[in-house]
Amino acid sequence: MNRTIELVKTIYEIKQLESLDEPQIALAGRSNVGKSSLVNRLAGRKSLAKISSKPGKTRSLNYYRVNPDGFYLVDLPGYGYARCSQSEREKWGKLIEAYMTANPGLKAVVVLLDARLTPQKLDLELTSYLRGLGIPVIPVLTKSDKPKQRERAALQNQWKDILQQPRLPLLFSSKTGMGEDKLWNVLAEYAIN
Ligand code: GTP
Ligand code: MG
């Protein structure tokens, strides 16, 4: 299917949140894990979402409409970015929480995990938080071009054990396109149901 992705809305504050009828799938993960790069890869465009080698680039909720499917991919600000002030971090935390809790259109959350790192406390906190809310988690190992091919399957299994999610984490690379087709299939599956 020939899909296009366009940015339709950017939100900075809780009061700007409004309920949408269309299904949404959010992209969450620590700062710098590659959320915005994933949007660009899926869109087939280099600079639709702004990316940076420095963490803390995305500071708003960005709603991307996927056509012709009609669902939204929502790029969230990264968590765990130490350089910003405590009050700013709390503000983002509240915004993300408000988005996730009062949102019947939210079908699943893609949790992006850095394939080069060991699982981090914040990743596990997020996945168990989502489990508590009953929101399905789609685990995705980003930067999977980095580990050696023979290590990748072992990595997937290690992460699966730790996350305790039903899905085997998907190997993905925005750089090479690894896992792109599989991810589209999973997104469509959740967005439609
Ligand atoms: P915040 O907006 O700060 O939360 O970060 P983000 O999760 O949106 O990360 P972003 O997409 O801005 O990417 C962060 C850095 O990782 C950039 O330097 C990207 O080029 C790099 N990167 C992202 N995806 C990949 C990938 O699949 N492979 C490799 N090798 N590098 C990647
Ligand atoms: Mg970003």
From TrEMBL:
Keywords: Cell cycle, Cell division, GTP-binding, Magnesium, Metal-binding, Nucleotide-binding, Septation
Cross-referenced InterPro entries: G_ENGB_dom (IPR030393), GTP-bd (IPR006073), GTP-bd_ribosome_bio_YsxC (IPR019987), P-loop_NTPase (IPR027417)
Pfam families (alphabetical): MMR_HSR1 (PF01926)
HAMAP family found in the cross-reference section: GTPase_EngB
Any GO MF annotation of the entry: GTP binding
Gene3D superfamilies given in the database record: P-loop containing nucleotide triphosphate hydrolases
Record's protein name: Probable GTP-binding protein EngB
Any single GO BP term: division septum assembly
Cofactor: Mg(2+)
Residues of the EngB-type G domain: 21-193
Keyword Secreted: no
Organism: Pseudodesulfovibrio aespoeensis (strain ATCC 700646 / DSM 10631 / Aspo-2)
